[in-house]
Design goal:
Elements lengths: L2 H8 L1 E3 L9 E3 L3 H8 L12 H12 L8 E5 L5 H8 L4 E6 L2 H13 L5 E4 L12 E5 L8 H13 L3 E6 L11 E7 L11 E8 L4
Parallel strand pairs: 3-4, 3-6, 4-5, 6-7
Antiparallel strand pairs: 1-2, 7-9, 8-9
Helix pairs in contact: 1-5, 3-4
Length: 209
């Protein structure tokens, strides 16, 4: 399978509504896109999810969070958050995902935005990023099986001193005791969510005491 051809065939170039500075290869409908990929994993890489858009917006509005630092974007999907970190002045950006199509999409999207980053195929729940100053994670608490190991990795990163930011529309498996650093109304989410506008927030995750 020519992964680059698949990404280009199933998507078009557009900007997420909350992050118009960034251009991505995006699909319009998730289930048709998934069927067309013939892949085991859903095509998370083909969409700009609400939590990721909120996190990317936060990073672009607050470049001091990432400027001059090594940033890791885990479960990167389309690479939206990683690209935002590049545009905000991060010294080095590493995007992690388990889906090879995601890595291809990240490369395509990085090129669209004229930024350089490293895309790594890795399961961070078994091999956490151990040298990033800032760890970003958008939309990783959507599944009861995925959320606990993802949160454990993020808390491990926080415990070693990394700043950990999570973007999420307060899904059911996100810890309820997290305090939002910022909140955003993400428009045009009807193809992914149950509503056309989704309220999403950015949370600072700290290690357990």
């Amino acid at each position: 399978m020519d992964q680059r051809a698949v990404v280009r065939e199933l998507t078009r170039t557009a900007s997420p509504p909350l992050v118009p500075e960034v251009r991505l290869r995006l699909a319009e409908e998730p289930f048709t896109t998934w069927a067309a990929t013939r892949a085991e994993d859903p095509p998370f890489w083909a969409f700009a999810w609400a939590g990721g858009q909120a996190l990317a917006r936060f990073v672009l509005d607050r470049p001091d969070v990432v400027a001059g630092r090594h940033v890791a974007d885990i479960a990167s999907g389309s690479g939206l958050v990683a690209i935002a970190a590049c545009l905000a002045g991060a010294r080095r950006v590493t995007a992690y995902d388990v889906d090879p199509l995601s890595l291809t999409a990240i490369g395509e999207n990085a090129g669209l935005n004229g930024v350089a980053l490293e895309a790594v195929r890795s399961d961070v729940t078994t091999t956490p990023p151990d040298d990033a100053d800032v760890v970003l994670a958008g939309d990783v608490c959507y599944d009861p099986d995925m959320a606990p190991p993802m949160l454990a990795v993020l808390r491990t990163c926080a415990a070693r001193g990394a700043k950990v930011l999570v973007g999420d529309p307060r899904r059911a498996y996100l810890p309820r005791d997290l305090k939002a650093e910022a909140e955003y109304d993400v428009p045009n989410t009807g193809n992914l969510e149950e509503r056309d506008t989704t309220r999403a927030a950015v949370f600072h995750l700290q290690a357990d005491a």
